[in-house]
């Protein structure tokens, strides 16, 4: 599998940064349509090759490794006029160069290979380190999120340096690579700079509970987004505190990690779930969905020695993976798809590897086998492996990120390979967040910094646990109990899927009814029971009692009524759906489409009269590059398709073209609001500059708008949280205002199902309204 992926990159893409596996060519920044912030990982420095260097060694591809090192030394240049992500460049490129150097140096010392090597990769790493340092030139010491490799941050030519904030992980995931660079070059500036950023994040934590937020202002240290979790935006900050202690031997990092970990387990962990909370009010979950990046956390819990919750959360993730073939980019607390993409992320494989290392339970080999089978069956294409655009349909995306080669194959290979067959002792190294290998021997090259102290609020109140400062021991945790992983997992093997009806039996027994409706029957069979449906809606249950002696089976029947319990509400707490109401003839407000909100842009719930405007389709439709029809977009509400780049990038392009609002339409064919969890768009961590209203429609609702636009020259809509009726009355009664979220679901869908054809038929005889419009009275919603 690795040969197919790496060979395809080298054949079709090198020296480009990434492979486009569907197009069978390289992705070169500036030559392909912009994908927004996703492209900030690309710096015209052969990203995938650098990110793969130490994977080649782990997989015993030593000839290929030596050839790859030569290519990097001869071909890669860092003096490029390109703006890159500080975070991504650090973990992928700086980490890749350091991992490659360490492997090259190891092989050279062994005396059989790379005798020509003279630390060229380390020199490149040092060069890159100095190109990243200008990002830290802020009043707080927290880094800018982006830097120009040639011009830095504040130069007139840099095209960056105006950002106000960054994510916690972006600022807190530098210490491993920067400290390793300092200790290998004896230049302390890198480690000191990364350490100062960590000090700021620690100082800015909520001192009452030791939680941190997701996005922070890089100039004054104020929190911009105060949601706290272990997934996207924060994840590797926690990881690097723990691993900084392991790599560098500095107790400060461990003390900080342990303080955060206690807070995580108290407020965020709801086994097997990990749900975000507000850092200032952590007793209430602020969203009911989880993102796939938190799949790393069970692996980190293994390093912490906390095996029980690691097993529980991993098992939950495995059940979600089995249900959807891959781990969706985000999924709800009842395990339905929230964001359908799967960009071949390795975090679940990472945790699987760590749990196998800790337990030696062959169950995790079977989990690894299922990952491999899914990749080969659903992601393998002619030119590599393609990301999955939608796990529900299996549609591919023309994308194979460098981390797929850097991490996924490394963890899967290590999961199945015997230690004696590796060219190195893997236990002498620690994995960075990009799975690059840094040697533990670095801890002896520099003493801990005396100024680096940790003061906990109210002192060190928490007692240290048995594995606070050492590796976990399953024998100590679960004495003489080799089946402990099974016992823990067993309670999480039958997690319900979204909207799953449950069959409630007498005595309060609940069985999930999946799509096939066979699993509950299998469960009952194990109990010796068989369900026999009757025509009147009731059910006979037949039970068998088998005698030890040979005799006819005694059968008895018990009649009971099967009660179908409705699933819990799918609407995440605090998420109020919006509406797109078509008010131009012949619709006259009677077509109402359920829309999802955005976490950025104008807050439509505070706009009493909504935002009114005429529709126009963006060109290009995905709006990921310069808008070609700016004159048409000016002053109108643009329709743009999801995909290709981040929502924030599309919104900026359309706002810059003069759009008064944006309606994003899902690119997953067939999706519709009645079947899907309400969708909320998130920004890119620095979306304060976006002020226009933004809403999201699923595919079916979006097609309704596109059909209307195709048949009518002018289509006017109102975006808002209230529904409006066109009419003669000029007065607005507060009592008559009705939120879209309060409109019964069946009524909202009836509005939608009628579509524009029905509106034409029913309303063609109505006269055109005047310019006044007002909230719909409750009795006149339709």
From TrEMBL:
**What's in the keyword line of the UniProt record?**
Calcium, Endoplasmic reticulum, Glycoprotein, Glycosidase, Hydrolase, Metal-binding, Signal, Unfolded protein response
The record's annotation in InterPro entries points to: 6hp_glycosidase-like_sf (IPR012341), EDEM1/2/3 (IPR044674), Glyco_hydro_47 (IPR001382), PA_dom_sf (IPR046450), PA_domain (IPR003137), Seven-hairpin_glycosidases (IPR036026)
Q: Name one GO biological process term.
A: endoplasmic reticulum mannose trimming
List the GO cellular component terms.
endoplasmic reticulum quality control compartment; membrane
The top EC class, named as a word, is hydrolase
Listed Pfam families: Glyco_hydro_47, PA
Q: Which GO terms describe its molecular function?
A: calcium ion binding; mannosyl-oligosaccharide 1,2-alpha-mannosidase activity
Q: Which cofactors does this gene product need?
A: Ca(2+)
Give the PA domain ranges. 611-705
Catalytic center residues: 88 (proton donor), 235, 329 (proton donor), 347
- Compartment(s) where it occurs, according to its Swiss-Prot or TrEMBL record: Endoplasmic reticulum
SUPFAM superfamilies attached to this UniProt entry: PA domain, Seven-hairpin glycosidases
Pathway linked to the protein? Protein modification; protein glycosylation
User: What is this protein's record name?
Assistant: alpha-1,2-Mannosidase
What organism does the UniProt record list as the source?
Answer: Crocodylus porosus
Coding gene? LOC109313842
